[in-house]
Amino acid sequence: MKADGLTRATLSSSLLLTLLLANFLSGCGDSQPPKQIISENFAHIDHDAKPLWLSNCANCHGATGGGNVDLSAPAVTGLQAWYLARQLHHFKNGIRGTHAKDATGGQMAEAIKNLNEAELDGLTELMTLLPSTAAQTFPSGDEARGKDYHNNLCSACHGSDGKGNEALQAPSLAGLNDWYIVNQYEKFRLGIRGSHPEDHYGAQMVRFAPAVKDAEVVRDIAYYLTTLPIDTDQ
Ligand code: HEC
Ligand code: HEC
User: Fold this and answer.
1) For the whole prediction, is pTM greater than 0.85?
2) What is the CA(205)–ligand 2 centre distance, in A?
3) CB neighbourhood size of 91 (10 A)
């Protein structure tokens, strides 16, 4: 019993030390946004689609897929393969990114238009292997209010852990960039995304989005979602 207690005490103090150290390191004065994590593992990813990713996608989404707010290009890490594949096909087939007011969706559609099915499949698989998590830009937010709204309104489809629900085809929201969640929610609310007659899942968001009209509340939900842990292995 005693030895057990001691082991536990030692374990928990080394855990504390690790956490403190991680905290300290992440606070070290480099120029990265505070919550961005870039993994060294990217160099070790061995996938046929990697050269295509680096030549055609990384310039906007970042080499490790964490997103670039200046280009409105979101993180594409931590998302499920079935969701990523659908989006690539929707962009390629004019189902997403063709609304007259969807300038950034149009840029993405343009970027993908000459790729074939096999290339899209390869890139989908590669994106599920990317190690980085989304770069965040909101320095603060009302986490409690965001959580409340998320649990009451979004979790039914996106899961209480924000990791999505394949049966409902609702993607993971944990792991997206905060600014991107706000930006897409607004697009659904205005029908700039999800209005194409073949966009059946986007249409669900278009129907649902008027449930939250206050932009500050959407921002708080996005802020809360960035506090949730993410899975990158699905
Ligand atoms: C010119 C910049 C640019 C390039 C190049 C580009 N993208 Fe994008 N991508 C974007 C933007 C901007 C969006 C967000 C569109 C919107 O606002 O709806 C996006 C969205 C996406 C999404 C949807 C993410 C989600 O959560 O729904 C995926 C997946 C994606 N891009 C993958 C790729 C892949 C793979 C490539 C390489 C073939 C690529 N992108 C090349 C700018 C780019
Ligand atoms: C009725 C089910 C349902 C509810 C409720 C719902 N969503 Fe969704 N949501 C979806 C589906 C399905 C998609 C996928 C749309 C697609 O494939 O284009 C989606 C997509 C999204 C996206 C786009 C993700 C991306 O990577 O581009 C965001 C952001 C989002 N939802 C936010 C929310 C928020 C915030 C709430 C709560 C306020 C919410 N959703 C409630 C079903 C739902």
Assistant:
1) yes
2) 5
3) 23
User: Do 169 and 204 reside in the same domain of the chain?
Assistant: yes
- For the chain, 234 residues long, give each residue's pLDDT as a single digit of tens: 344 443 443 434 443 334 333 433 443 434 444 344 445 567 788 899 999 999 999 999 999 999 999 999 999 999 999 999 999 999 999 999 999 999 999 999 999 999 999 999 999 999 999 976 788 899 999 999 999 999 999 999 999 999 999 999 999 999 999 999 999 999 999 999 999 999 999 999 999 999 999 999 999 999 999 999 876 444
Domain presence at residue 14: no
Measured distance CA(212)–CA(183) in Å, rounded: 14
Alpha carbon of 108 to ligand 1 centroid (Å)? 5
Dist. CA 39–CA 74, nearest whole Å: 17
Beta bridge partners of 165: 170
From CA 139, how far away is CA 213, in angstroms rounded?
A: 22
CATH number, domain at 155? Answer: 1.10.760.10
Identify the bridge partners of residue 73 per DSSP, sorted by sequence position. Answer: 68
Classified as helix, coil or strand, 170 is strand
Sign (positive/negative) of CA torsion 28, 36, 165, 181?
positive
- Give the residue from 129, 158, 184 where a domain finishes: 129
For ligand 2, mutation pick of 160, 190, 205, 230 (most atoms within 8 Å of CB)? 205
Domain that holds residue 201: 143-225
Pick from 142, 140, 160, 141: nearest CA to 150: 160
